[in-house]
Design brief:
265 residues, alpha/beta, 5-stranded mixed beta barrel, 7 helices, 24% strand
Length: 265
């Protein structure tokens, strides 16, 4: 709605993310099914020239402009050429985030997607969370200095006004490369105070930190990590519902970000 096709021309600029209005927004998704409702809702079109500098990279970009002139990009991790499944996890996420920052020069990154929640922290299927911090829960490196590096602990862009506008929950987002969680992983999730468990955000946060680009995490809950149903069963059963929730909330996020300073979020 209100989206116009972008010309296939991408201009790289640099500016302080805190002092200039947000005019370029990039939304990163791991799975096509998560992104599809938003792409359709905003009438975005595929931009095949977005990552021309990396022709063998798997990610796909969809682009448009808001009536205000703000550019909106949706970037999906793409598919694994060997296994023909979506490139979920930290490798695909880091690659997508890096190329997005280099080629599209976003003023802000939004990592949107589905995730697991925790009943003991008030989470329920269908809840929407804004991340407050991003940590890795399965990078265990028990060597001084490397232990902290393994966890990461990247702060999210402060978004108190956005959270109030959306009326959503906030909490720590923890990232790992497995859909399930071992007892060791569960202990780490507890130690880090995780409200959200997923597979990409901390990798994107690492890249965002390199480029000094603010990162906002928007996650909808498909499964309850500390619940009685097997994670994979609950995830598959609720993926469509969670994707629809993302379609509802992410346009509101984009509308709120449009033209604001990062300090106003």
């Amino acid at each position: 709605a209100g989206i116009q096709r972008l010309a296939s021309h991408f201009i790289v600029t640099t500016s302080s993310p805190m002092s200039t209005p947000i005019k370029t927004i990039a939304v990163l998704f791991a799975m096509d099914a998560e992104a599809a409702p938003l792409i359709a809702h905003l009438a975005l079109v595929e931009a095949p020239d977005a990552f021309v500098r990396a022709p063998r990279a798997p990610m796909k970009c969809y682009a448009g402009t808001l009536p205000s002139g703000t550019k909106v990009y949706v970037v999906c991790n793409g598919s694994c050429v060997k296994h023909n499944v979506c490139n979920v996890g930290t490798v695909g996420a880091a690659l997508s985030a890096y190329e997005t920052c280099v080629s599209l020069s976003p003023d802000v990154l939004v990592n949107a997607g589905t995730a697991g929640g925790f009943a003991k922290r008030g989470g329920a299927v269908g809840d929407v969370y804004l991340g407050t911090e991003f940590k890795n829960f399965d990078r265990r490196i028990p060597i001084p200095g490397y232990d902290a590096y393994g966890v990461g602990s990247y702060e999210a862009c402060a978004t108190p006004n956005l959270a109030a506008h959306l009326g959503c929950k906030r909490g720590v987002v923890c990232t790992g490369n497995s859909l399930d969680a071992t007892e060791t992983c569960r202990a780490a999730l507890e130690e880090y105070g995780a409200s959200v468990k997923e597979m990409e955000a901390a990798a994107i946060a690492h890249v965002a930190h390199l480029f000094d680009v603010p990162l906002i995490g928007v996650k909808t809950i498909t499964d309850i990590v500390d619940g009685p149903v097997a994670t994979q069963e609950e995830f598959l059963a609720n993926l469509g519902t969670a994707a629809a929730a993302l379609k509802d909330v992410v346009p509101k996020v984009i509308e709120f970000l449009d033209g604001k300073l990062v300090s106003e979020l």
